[in-house]
Amino acid sequence: MKMSVFIVDDHPVVLEGTANRLGEENDIEIAGIALTGEECLQKIRQLGLNLIILDLNLPDISGLDLIKKIIEIKPDLKIIIFTGYGLEGYIKPCIDRGAKGFVLKTSTFFHMIQAVHIVNDGGVYLDPALGQSILVMIKGNGEHGARRKGRNGANILTAREADILNLIARGLRNHEIAATLQLSDRTVQFHLTNMFAKLGVRSRMEALLRGKALGLISNEA
Question: How far is it, in rounded angstroms, from Cα 8 to Cα 31?
């Protein structure tokens, strides 16, 4: 069954190009498009949708306000933010309002297609180019998180899993983690699988956010 996708962007060329490219995928159906926030809100009421791709910078309504209104109308609708400018300061507010994915317009369509599939399956997607932004967000409340460590999350992870989580917070990839801890890539993946299960997450981004909430990420990470 095809996933039903709606796209909102105030640039017609970007809007039509994104719709045409995604529409080429066998499992994606473009259910509609909109150039403004108000047009989006009017159209989605009548459509059965799985996912919406949303530009934050619209002429008639704040992207953050629009996310909130969309969720009020369709609470189960999954939202991917698609923007051409930096998301510093916007990631957490967007997540708090219900967004599940972030893709920059400077990225290739590979990232957008990947985001659509991951978010539609219930995961969270972060454009690789936003890695530094998410690390800054996670570290922002590091001291407070450290004080909570031991009350909320100290016994959730093994020492090795906690080490890996903190190396992820430093921006290391799997093979770099393996080299740092003198483990095989396969062993690192094994620990990641267990960690994700314990934290109830499906991606690195979700693990970092959950780890921050539980005080599992150290100040030095």
Answer: 12
DSSP state of 53: E
What is the distance between the alpha carbons of residues 97 and 52, in angstroms, rounded to a whole number?
14
Q: Write the DSSP string, 158-194.
A: -HHHHHHHHHHHTT--HHHHHHHHT--HHHHHHHHHH
The domains of the chain are located at 3-130, 140-213
**What class is the 3-130 domain?**
alpha beta
Report the C-alpha gap between 87 and 33 in whole angstroms: 23
Q: What pLDDT digit, counting tens, does each position of 124-182 carry? A: 787 877 765 555 555 554 434 333 343 444 457 888 888 999 999 888 888 999 999 99
Beta strands 51-54 and 3-8: pairing type?
parallel
Contact (Cβ atoms closer than 8 angstroms) between residue 146 and residue 210: no
Report pTM: 0.65
The CATH number of the structural domain formed by 140-213 is 1.10.10.10
Question: Facing residues of 53 across strands?
Answer: 7, 80
Q: Evaluate whether 8 touches 62 at the Cβ level (below 8 Å).
A: no
